[in-house]
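> forwarded from #structure-qc
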């Protein structure tokens, strides 16, 4: 099912296939985690902000037990549409 907008605090949900047409902004609030994107491993800690163009390509998610994140995914079509002037 296609999702136009989604907000979550579930780190392990960030690479769902339903988000393949979105751009995601993820903020790490506490703890630390890592993931692989385009064959490169990224490590995030508190106060890191990550923008991911194709979240369905994220893999090998690993989170410390105290990890807290918030993320928002928005449809590319919405993000690229002309804004009112």
């Amino acid at each position: 099912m296609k999702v136009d907008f989604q907000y979550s605090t579930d780190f392990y949900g960030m690479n769902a296939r339903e988000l393949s047409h979105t751009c995601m902004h993820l903020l790490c609030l506490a703890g630390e985690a890592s993931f692989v994107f385009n064959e490169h491993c990224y490590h995030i800690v508190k106060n890191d902000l990550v923008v991911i163009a194709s979240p369905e390509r994220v893999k090998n998610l690993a989170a410390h037990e105290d990890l807290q994140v918030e993320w928002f995914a928005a449809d590319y079509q919405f993000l690229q549409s002309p804004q009112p002037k």
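QC bot note: The first strand starts at residue 5 and ends at 8. The radius of gyration is 13 Å.
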